[in-house]
């Protein structure tokens, strides 16, 4: 099984920055390891559905972003460290949510149906 552990969340003022990390360990049921798995970030605010934020292919050859974060957030990964990152700049109060790391999309990057999920990390942006 793949285990995902997010870190880096916290409280920041509007306009500030945070970098989230997601450390992966283990392997999939089929034996795939982190370096061969596409990864995604989602977020969920209170009372709202989980929404797509960003995704990255296993090779880092392609990245994807929700329109709401384009130009402000950047996803990257270090396969040697089994870690995916989400650099968040110019944060807004509406970015406040629990951010989840996910591995191995089942139905496309933007659909919150992935094989593995982390426990989430809280990001709070004050105005």
Q: Calculate the mean pLDDT score and round it.
A: 95
Helix content: under 10%
| SSE arrangement, N to C | EEEEEEEEEEE
Spans with pLDDT under 50 lasting ≥5 residues?
Answer: none
Instruction: List the quaternary state of the chains.
Output: single chain
From the N-terminal CA to the C-terminal CA, the straight-line distance is 40 Å
Q: What integer value in Å does the Rg equal?
A: 14 Å
Report the portion of residues in β strands: over 45%
If helices are DSSP runs of H or I spanning 4 or more residues, what is the number of helices? 0
Description:
By secondary structure, this protein is mostly beta strands. It has strands spanning 2-7, 10-13, 18-26, 39-44, 51-56, 63-65, 73-78, 83-88, 97-105, 114-117, 121-126. The strands form 2 sheets. Strands 2, 4, 5, 6, 9, 10 and 11 form a 7-stranded mixed sheet that branches. The chain has a 4-stranded antiparallel sheet with strand order 1-3-8-7, with no helix packed on it. Strand 9 and strand 10 form a beta hairpin.
